[in-house]
Structure formats: structure tokens, C-alpha cells
Design a protein that fits this description.
- This protein is of the alpha/beta class.
- The chain has two domains: about 130 residues, Alpha-Beta Complex (Aspartate Aminotransferase, domain 1), CATH 3.90.1150; about 230 residues, 3-Layer(aba) Sandwich (Aspartate Aminotransferase, domain 2), CATH 3.40.640.
- Helix content is about 40%, strand content about 15%.
- The protein is built from twelve helices and 13 strands.
- The strands form three sheets. It has a seven-stranded mixed β-sheet with strand order 2-8-7-6-5-3-4, sandwiched between helices.
- Helix 3 runs parallel beside helix 10 and helix 4 packs parallel to helix 5.
- The longest helix is centred in the last third of the chain and has 36 residues.
- The protein is globular, with a radius of gyration of 21 Å.
């Protein structure tokens, strides 16, 4: 019997960029399994939050499991109580609608899928959250990734840069606010200018507020420009629930109703995660000041260490997120060399190519929503690594 030889599936135009792996690992999955499985690993590589203890979140999820809640499918759009809590947390009223999702990543995917037509383009920034570029390239014509790694624009995608880069086919502008990986955020005047641009050109603002609770001051674009804003909400960072994969999309009913028509996960989001999420918002007043205070203290410790290294500086300080970019271009040590050095000391940090196609060679991204003793250990290892890596050359 003759075998039928099929053509291999051709790579898609939106294929993910290959991750730069630390020495000794053959795949991203192998590396992440390594860091995940090591209980002594200090987790500074994915902006996760390790500052929660017994504040009701874990307890709510354990209780959900003990009650066998996971045997049943939950409501497909999320428990009404959870939806209500998210809206209250954002200070938004009944004129908005919401869908609970399996994390902010799913929310971003659904937004790009729903908003973009094949002829449309999207404006993002570099550095930035490159997954958004990936999703936008799947459903639109192309992505305009605007370079923003400079003091002139304040290390962020400004209204002026958006105006310079949009055209008649621009349909979506991505605003990760505060910005991963730099921690830059927007002023109220800039938000007003974004509103004017969106309304004048009939475009949508994709407002990813994953890190907003770490910011010193923050305003929702949904409050300023509701008809042209879709907001992406996450439980991964401030609530410390990254592994539970739960988030939300918020917008006016017209936007959310359109997104409803393309939802794939129509059997609902993880029921255990939803129970944890409800407890997280309900308990937030009890721990939010402590978590924010610790993260701000921690970035001060990192700043003191970086200031001791000739040629190193923090691009945006203070950061309005729980992460920062340590620029190392003039130190004689590359971010990848430092990341490899740190992983040997059980500190997981990321060299910049994960969040930038053009500037990743310049910086090491570190997050600091971890216990202060771990940040102090990082500071020691960073200084020791600088000396050791310079000597080895």
C-alpha cells in the first residue's frame, strides 16, 4: 500500500519568537519545569507575587476542593458574585459588562480576535508584552511596534507617538499600564489625549491593567473613554494567583456582546480559581497596603545595588509595577550572562529579549513582589556577579 506523503504544515507568520534559553536547557518547557520544581528558587523572572500568606485566598480554594466543587461546570461567563466584585474593585457601574476568562492572556486573545479585521493594523510598543503583538498579527494585517526605550518619550507609548504612527487602517492601540517590563505609567493628561485620538479616529484602546494596583496613581481609560476602551483585568499579579489562570474583560455592552460571540471556553473558567478570586477581592483591604509597601521597599534595595555598578542604571525609577529593567549596556556584562549567573544561585531573572525585539540586549528584567530577604540576596548576588563576570572576560 502506497503511503501518502503530506506537505508539512508551514510556519505561521505570527509564530512566536524563539525564547533565549539559559545554558544547559534544550527547550523553554524544560527550563520552566526546572525553575518551577525547585522549592528554593527565588522567583524574579515572571512578575509573580509571592507576598500572600494566610489571607483567605488559599483557604477559599482549599475549601472549594474539599467540597468537590470541581466536579461541576461553573456558569460560562463567571460566577455573578465574582463579576460584581471585579466591577466594584474597578469602581465601574452597571453601564459596563464583564466576562470572566482563563487569565489575561485569553482576554487579550479574544480582544484581538474580535476587534481586528484582516486589513487592520495595531500599534504596540517595544519594549512591551510581545504576546499582544503575536495575537494582533494573527487577526490583523500587521503590527506597528513603536520603539519607546528612551528618555524622550518617558519609556512609554505616548499619545504623540500613537498619532505619528496611526493611519486609516489602524484599529487597535495597546496600552499596558503600567508597562511590562519597564514600570512606566500614564498621566491623567495623557489619558485625556488618548481619549481624543480614539474618538477622532474611531479606534479601540486595549487597556491592560494587570499591574495597576502596584502603581502610585492610576486611572482607568474606561472612565475616560468608555465607548472606545476594552479593559483587561488579571488576578495573576497583585492577587498572587498566576498559576490559577483567571482574569476578565470589561467594556460597554456593545463590545462585550461582540466578544461573547467568539468565546471558545464556553464551559466556564476554573471553579477553584473563581472561588479564590472572590476571596482575593474580598480580603484585599486587609493586605493591599502591606504588599504595595513591601514591593516599594524592595525596589529601593535593588536601586541601591544598581547604583554601585559603573554603567548600570534602572530605566524607570520608581517603577509603577512590580518589575523593573536594569540597563547593563555600558557595564561590560550582558543581561544573558547575568541571568545565567543568577540561575546558578537559584535566582530566576529574565534577560530582555523576552520583552523586546530591539532592546533586549540592554537590560535584565527583575520583579520584586517577593520577600525582602530574597531581594537582599539578589542584590548581593548581582554585585558579586558583576565583579565575577567582568574578571572572567
Amino acid at each position: 500500500m502506497d503511503c501518502v506523503v503530506r506537505d508539512m504544515i508551514s510556519p505561521k507568520k505570527y509564530a512566536k519568537a524563539t525564547k533565549v534559553l539559559p545554558k544547559g536547557f534544550k527547550s523553554a518547557n524544560e527550563f520552566f519545569n526546572y525553575v518551577y520544581s525547585d522549592p528554593d528558587m527565588i522567583w524574579m523572572g515572571q512578575n509573580t507575587n509571592h507576598l500572600h500568606d494566610k489571607d483567605g485566598i488559599m483557604e477559599a480554594m482549599i475549601a472549594s476542593i474539599q467540597e468537590n466543587d470541581y466536579c461541576k461546570y461553573p456558569p460560562p461567563e463567571g460566577f455573578p458574585r465574582l463579576k460584581e466584585l471585579v466591577m466594584d474593585d474597578m469602581g465601574l457601574g452597571s453601564e459596563y459588562d464583564i466576562l470572566i476568562t482563563a487569565g489575561a492572556t485569553e482576554s487579550l486573545y479574544l480582544c484581538a480576535n474580535d476587534i481586528l479585521e484582516p486589513e487592520n493594523n495595531t500599534i504596540t510598543c517595544d519594549p512591551g508584552y510581545l504576546i499582544i503583538d503575536n495575537f494582533a498579527s494573527r487577526f490583523g494585517d500587521h503590527v506597528k511596534s513603536v520603539p519607546i526605550y528612551n528618555e524622550t518619550c518617558g519609556y512609554k507609548l505616548t499619545p504623540e507617538l500613537v498619532s505619528e504612527n496611526l493611519d486609516k487602517n489602524t484599529k487597535l492601540v495597546s496600552l499596558v499600564d503600567p508597562l511590562n517590563p519597564l514600570g512606566s505609567s500614564y498621566t491623567r493628561q495623557e489619558r485625556k489625549e488618548f481619549k481624543d485620538i480614539a474618538e477622532d479616529h474611531d479606534i479601540y484602546l486595549l487597556h491592560d491593567i494587570t499591574y495597576r494596583d502596584f502603581a502610585h496613581d492610576h486611572q482607568l481609560m474606561a472612565e475616560v473613554c468608555p465607548e472606545h476602551t476594552v479593559t483587561v483585568y488579571s488576578f495573576s499579579k497583585i492577587y498572587g494567583m498566576a498559576g490559577m489562570r483567571i482574569g476578565a474583560i470589561i467594556g460597554v455592552p456593545e463590545i462585550i456582546n461582540s466578544i461573547r460571540s467568539i468565546v471558545i471556553n464556553d464551559l466556564g473558567t476554573n471553579v477553584v480559581a473563581q472561588n479564590g478570586a472572590m476571596a482575593a477581592i474580598e480580603s484585599k483591604p486587609q493586605w493591599i497596603d502591606r504588599v504595595k509597601g513591601t514591593t516599594r521597599q524592595n525596589q529601593d534595595i535593588i536601586k541601591q545595588a544598581v547604583d554601585q555598578v559603573d554603567g548600570a542604571h534602572i530605566a524607570v525609577y520608581p517603577s509603577d509595577g512590580n518589575m523593573m529593567a536594569i540597563d547593563m549596556i555600558d557595564t561590560g556584562v550582558t543581561p544573558r550572562e547575568m541571568a545565567d549567573y543568577l540561575i546558578e544561585r537559584k535566582i530566576f531573572a529574565r534577560e530582555g529579549s523576552y520583552t523586546s525585539k530591539h532592546f533586549g540586549h540592554r537590560y535584565l528584567r527583575v520583579s520584586f513582589s517577593i520577600p525582602t530577604t530574597q531581594v537582599e540576596f539578589f542584590a548581593e548576588c548581582f554585585l558579586e556577579g558583576m565583579e565575577a563576570l567582568k574578571v572572567s572576560k
